């Protein structure tokens, strides 16, 4: 299993001016490229961009929700020790019952032998205290 460290930085809002870069799209792409390359030199890999809600105060008692654009990066911390296998609660477990009519050998529930067996006799509940 691989362990990662994550870093989240705000996405740039404006593109930086540079020689030969004229349009807004080109400036913004250049700014993103420089940011991603700077973080890549430190070992960070780009994962994705997210727009996340952020509640801000307005006035004394008011608030408003804005969305912040964030860039998510991660870098490896190395391999972790192998973890214990996780047992799933959805694993089928065969249920067994003793067959009172035969030799007493357990019979797997859900098999034809288990479905054809007789139900136990039902009667009034007996208390251990009443026997004394």
- Tertiary shape: elongated
Q: Supply Rg.
A: 33 Å
What profile does the largest beta sheet have? Answer: 3 strands, antiparallel
What is the total tally of β strands? 5
What percent of the residues sit in helical stretches (DSSP H or I)? 10-25%
What distance lies between the first and last C-alpha atoms, to the nearest angstrom? Answer: 62 Å
Residues in β-strands, percent:
35-45%
List SSEs in N-to-C order.
Answer: EHEEEEHH
Briefly note the structural class of the backbone: alpha+beta
Within the largest sheet, what's the order of strands? Answer: 1-3-2
Count of discrete alpha- or pi-helical segments spanning 4 or more residues: 3
Description of the molecule:
The chain has a domain at 2-79. The protein is built from three helices and five strands. It is α+β, with helices and mostly antiparallel strands. The radius of gyration is 33 Å and the shape is elongated.
Features:
132 residues, alpha+beta, 3-stranded antiparallel β-sheet, two-stranded antiparallel sheet, 36% strand
Topology:
Blueprint: E1 2-10, H1 24-41, E2 45-58, E3 62-79, E4 96-98, E5 106-108, H2 112-115, H3 128-131
Antiparallel strand pairs: 1-3, 2-3, 4-5
What would a concise description of this structure say?
The protein is an alpha+beta fold. The chain is 20% helix and 36% strand. The longest helix has 18 residues, at 24-41.
């Amino acid at each position: 299993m691989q362990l990662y460290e994550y870093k989240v930085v705000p996405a740039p809002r404006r593109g930086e001016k540079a020689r030969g870069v004229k349009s807004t799209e080109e400036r913004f792409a250049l700014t993103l490229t420089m940011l991603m390359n700077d973080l890549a030199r430190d070992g960070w890999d780009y994962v994705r961009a997210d727009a996340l809600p952020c509640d801000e105060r307005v006035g004394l008692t008011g608030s408003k929700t804005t969305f912040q654009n964030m860039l998510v990066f991660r870098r490896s911390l190395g391999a972790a020790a192998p973890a214990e296998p996780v047992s799933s609660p959805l694993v089928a477990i065969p249920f067994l019952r003793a067959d009172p009519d035969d030799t007493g050998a357990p019979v797997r529930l859900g098999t034809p032998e288990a479905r054809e067996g007789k139900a136990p006799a039902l009667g009034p509940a007996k208390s251990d205290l009443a026997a004394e």
